[in-house]
Design brief:
This protein is 92% helix and 0% strand. It is mainly α and 87 residues long. The radius of gyration is 36 Å and the shape is rod-shaped.
Length: 87
Amino acid sequence: MSLESRLNALQKQLRALKTQAKKASGQAQRRAKRLERKTRVTLERTVRTLEPKVRKAVSEARLIALGVRAGVRAGTAAYRRSRAPKR
């Protein structure tokens, strides 16, 4: 095989590889876009489902905290009333 024929064969292989690389990168881009879109939709759906539950839980926690604070205040006042005054 002469040098010219080897060079031509290598150029032909290079063209074929370029074509395959373009095709593969296009497929990878489509796959990445599809995956990103699917992830975004799943995330939005999850947020939409969980947000009302989280809001409700936070408001319940606020109410519980208020009750605990009121109970602590009442307990402190009762303790102070039951103690003998300082002399």
